[in-house]
Amino acid sequence: MRTTIKFLCLALAILVFSATAASAANFTFSNDLDLRIAITMTYYDAEGGALTTSGWWHVEPDSETVISVNADTSREVYYAAYNKVPYIDSATRNNARIDRWASPRTFTFTTDAEPDMDGVWLGRFYQISGGSVNIDGRP
Questions:
Q1: Residues 89, 125, 69, 23, CA torsion sign
Q2: Contacts of 50 (CB under 8 A, 6+ apart)
Q3: Looking at the domain assignment, is residue 48 inside a domain?
Q4: What is the domain range of residue 74?
Q5: pTM over cut 0.90
Q6: How far is CA 79 from CA 17, 54, 82, 86, in A?
Q7: Is 47 within the bounds of a domain?
Q8: Which positions ≥6 away from 1 have C-beta within 8 Å?
Q9: d(Cα 69, Cα 83) in Å, to the nearest integer?
Q10: Which of 49, 114, 122, 132 is deepest in the core (most CB within 10 A)?
Q11: Is residue 128 part of a domain?
Q12: pLDDT (tens digit, 9 = 90+) per residue, 65-76?
């Protein structure tokens, strides 16, 4: 009986460690522009599987920022970069894209009409191909 309990405890510890290690995903955003860029990301949550949008992170001119999210990296991960207008990594220009309504305070996914919120805009999120994104131009 003790052997079984020890085995179950070990198996549970391995499962928890694996889930925790697998859920942290790091993405490096570099900014080649001469203005501060705001980044937001859309990804499938590693724990619940729901499509989640989070942000804002900022990347100063000619610098980089590492963003850690709880993303399921076996599925698509998207980003949007803004400073009053959208900017992108020119290497992701032709990647898959999704649109999400966003505002400075909240994110809402809808395929219907514009949400009833102040300052809302339709953000274009481009799929990330790998662990780094270099913001260098307009879409």
A1: negative
A2: 44
A3: yes
A4: 25-135
A5: no
A6: 28, 10, 10, 11
A7: yes
A8: none
A9: 22
A10: 132
A11: yes
A12: 999 999 999 999
